[in-house]
């Protein structure tokens, strides 16, 4: 995990899991901006732009398949 301090700070401040997710997605978008290859950049941004509800649905599917 790259940003444990951010996550710990949010948890201690009472942030919801959606707020933590949104913060992480902002950091991820910044990392995507460093990618030079257009196709890789587009894939990265698509993943970074996934909203929290879509994330929860995919997570639920993954948990159900275990």
Structure overview:
The protein is mainly α and 66 residues long. The protein has one domain (14-64). The chain contains 4 helices and no strands. It has helices at 4-13, 17-32, 38-48, 52-64. Helix 2 (17-32) packs antiparallel against helix 3. The protein is flat. The two termini are 23 Å apart.
Mean pLDDT: 83
Q: In total, how many domains does the architecture comprise?
A: 1
Distance between the termini: 23 Å
Radius of gyration: 14 Å
In terms of DSSP E residues, the strand content is: under 5%
Order of helices and strands: HHHH
Describe the secondary-structure layout.
Layout: H1 4-13, H2 17-32, H3 38-48, H4 52-64
Helix pairs in contact: 2-3
Task: Kindly list the characteristics that best describe this protein.
4 helices; single chain; 66 residues; mainly alpha
Outline of this structure?
By secondary structure, this protein is mainly α. The chain has helices at 4-13, 17-32, 38-48, 52-64.
């Amino acid at each position: 995990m790259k940003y444990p301090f951010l996550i710990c700070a949010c948890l201690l401040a009472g942030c919801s899991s959606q707020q933590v997710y949104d913060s992480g997605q902002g950091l991820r978008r910044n990392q995507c901006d460093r990618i030079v290859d257009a196709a890789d950049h587009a894939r990265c941004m698509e993943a970074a732009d996934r909203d929290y509800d879509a994330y929860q649905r995919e997570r639920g599917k993954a948990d159900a398949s275990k």
